[in-house]
Design goal:
The structure is a homohexamer of 132-residue chains. The first copy, chain A, is of the alpha+beta class. Chain A has a single domain, classed as Tetrahydropterin Synthase, Chain A (2-Layer Sandwich). Chain A has 4 helices and 5 strands, in the order βαβαβααββ. In chain A, strands 3-1-2-4-5 form a 5-stranded mixed sheet. The mean pLDDT of chain A is 97. Chains in contact: A-B, A-D, A-E, B-C, B-E, C-D, C-F, D-F, E-F. Chains A and B meet through helix 4 and strand 5 of A and strand 1 and helix 2 of B.
Chain lengths: 132, 132, 132, 132, 132, 132
C-alpha cells in the first residue's frame, strides 16, 4: 500500500489584548463598524492556535514533523511575539494591520516554515482559518 | 504577498426534539431501521452548529464577514425556526423530510446566504457536514 | 498516613425530549413562566450526567467502586429509562413531576444506590446538582 | 422523600484586557512579581464565568431560579461592566484593585444577588473560585 | 435542488500503551530522536478517533451511513484490537511499524471499510489525519 | 467587606502507561477484578490533573498562590516523576501500590505542598478526587 500525505496538527495558546480599528475611518465609523471590539482601551482573548503541517511521514521516524520541533517553531515564531502582548502596541505585525482573527491567521500561516494551514480560535464562537 | 481566501467559522446552538421515521416504511421497518431514534414520542438533542463562510477579507474591515452579522443571520434563518422546537411537528422544513443530521446540515447550508459549509453536531459522537 | 474518603465521578449521556409545564397553571401562565421550554410539542437535550460516589478505596482493588459497575448501574437505573425518550410521556418519573434539570438531578441522585451527588448538564450553559 | 437544596450553575463569558500591577511596588518589583502579566500595554483573556445559586426548587416551577433570569442578572451586573473592556481602565471595580482571577471572582460573587459561589476561568489552566 | 455528498463523523476512544522506537537505530539515536516517547517501559494515551464517511444520504433513511453500524465497525476493526492494549506488544499492526499518530491514522483509515478520512488525537496538543 | 478563602485551580497533564493488578490475588482473580485494565503488557492514559489550593489572597499580589509557582511545583513533584512513564515499573510510588485513579489522586494530594484537593481525570468518563 502506498501512503498519501498525512496532516498533523499542533495546538498552542496565547493570551493577548487587541483593538479593531481602521485609521482611515472616522471615530464614529470605527465605532459603528467594529462595535465593542473598537474599545480604545483594548479588550483581549485567549487565542487557540492550531498549526497544520502536511507531508509524508519520514521513513526513519514515522513522523511528518517532530511535534516537539513544531511546538518550538510556534513558540519562537508566534508565541514569543504575541503571548501576553498588546497586538496593536507591542507588535510590528499589527501596528498597521487590523488584528482581526483573519489577519492573525494569515500572518501566522505565512511566518511558520512548512505551515500548510492555520486555525485561530479567538473565542468560543469565532474562528478563522488560512491555508497557505 | 497576496492573500488566499480565508475561512471563518461561527458556532451557535439550538435545542430541539425530533423523531426519525419514513412514512413509506411500515412501523416494524421504521423501528428496525431507526432503532431508538424512531420513538413515536420523540427524543431530543442540543445541536451544535458551525457555519463556515469563505472569502477575501474586506480591505476596510479585515473581516471576511462581520461575525455579529453572521450570528444574526444564523439566528434569523435557523435558530428562530428550530430552537426549542419539535423538528417534525413545528417546522415546515422537516414535516416531510426526515430530520437526520445529514438533512439538517443540508437544509441549513442551502438556506444561509453566503454559507460555504455547515457542520451539525447532534451528539458528542455524531456529526454531519455539508459543503454547498 | 491515613486516607480520607475519595470521590469518584462517572460521566454518562442520554438524549431526551421534554416540556416544562405545570398543569395547575393556565396555558398563558405556563407560557409566561417557562417561555420556549413550554412548547407543547416538546424540545430536547443531550443530557450529560456525572454521578459521584464517595468512600474509602477497597483494600484489595484500590477502587472506591469499580467504574464498570457504576457505569452499569447508571445504565440500568437511568439510561434505560430516559435515553431517547420523551421524559413527560415515556417515563413514570416525570409524568406528574416537571422535568427541570433540578428535578432530574434529584430523581437520579435518589435512585442510584450509593450515589453521593449528581450533576446534570442540560445545555452548555445550564447545570443542576443534587447532593443526597 | 424530602429534598435538600439543589445547586444550579449558569455559564457565561466575557472578553477583557487587563494588567496585573501593584502601584505600591516599584516597576522592577512589579515585573518580577507579575512577570508577563505586568505588561504595561495590557494583555487579555476570554473569561469563563460560572455562577452557582443554591436553594430549594420552587413548588410551582421546579426551578431554583429561572436560568433566563440568572443569565439576565449576570449580563446586567457583570457582562455589561466587563465584556470587551479594559478591566484596569474601563471599570471602577479594578481601578485600584488588582484584577487577578481571585479578585474578579470575589467581586462577582459579592455583586450578584443570591450568588452562592463563582468560578472564574481565566485560561485553560487557571481558575479561581469564591464562595460567599 | 440536488444534494452534494455529505460527510459524517463518528467519534470513538481507546486507551493504549506504546513506545516510539526504530530498531534500525542505536539506543542512543532512538533516545535522541524520540525523547520521552522512547521510554523502554512504555507510556500511554487516551486516543480520540474520528472516522469520516462521505456519500449521498440514502433515499430511504436519510443516512450516509447508520452511525450505529459505523460505531460497530470501528469497534470490531479498531477498538477490539487496540483498546487497553500495548500497541507494540499486543498488536500485529505495530509489531514492526512505529506506532506514531501518523501511522495509527494511516492503518485505521486503510482498515475500516468505506472510511474516507481518519483523525487521531493522541493528546490535547497532537493530532494526525489521514485521507484515503 | 471581609473576604473568605478563595480556591484556585491549576490544570496540568501527563501521559503514562499503567496496569491494575494486586499480587495477592491469583492471575485469574486479577483478570476478573480488573478486566481489560489488568493487561500484563500495560495500557495507558492522558491524565488530566487539577490541583486546588485554598487561602486568602496575598495583600500585595492579590494571588492565593502564583500560578507559575504552582505549575512549577506540580512539574517537579508530579510530572517529572510520572509523565511519559510506566507507573508500575518506572516509579517507586506505584511499585507496590495499585495505580488506580483513586490512589494516584491520593498520592499527588499528599505530595504537593499546600495542596487542598486533587482531581485526576483518567479518561473522558472516569475521575477521582482527593481532599487532604
Amino acid at each position: 500500500m502506498t501512503m498519501n500525505k498525512v496532516a498533523v496538527f499542533r495546538k498552542e495558546h496565547f493570551n493577548a489584548a487587541h483593538r479593531l480599528n481602521n485609521p482611515l475611518l472616522s471615530d464614529a465609523e470605527n465605532a459603528r463598524v467594529f462595535g465593542k471590539c473598537n474599545n480604545p482601551n483594548y479588550h483581549g482573548h485567549n487565542y487557540e492556535l492550531i498549526v497544520q503541517v502536511t507531508g509524508l511521514p519520514d521513513a526513519v521516524t514515522g513522523y511528518v514533523i517532530d511535534m516537539k520541533v513544531l511546538s518550538d517553531l510556534i513558540k519562537e515564531d508566534v508565541l514569543d511575539k504575541f503571548d501576553h502582548k498588546n497586538l496593536n502596541l507591542d507588535t510590528t505585525e499589527f501596528a498597521t494591520v487590523n488584528p482581526t482573527a483573519e489577519n492573525i491567521a494569515y500572518w501566522i500561516a505565512k511566518n511558520i516554515s512548512n505551515c500548510y494551514k492555520v486555525r485561530v480560535q479567538e473565542s468560543e464562537g469565532n474562528t478563522a482559518e488560512y491555508e497557505v
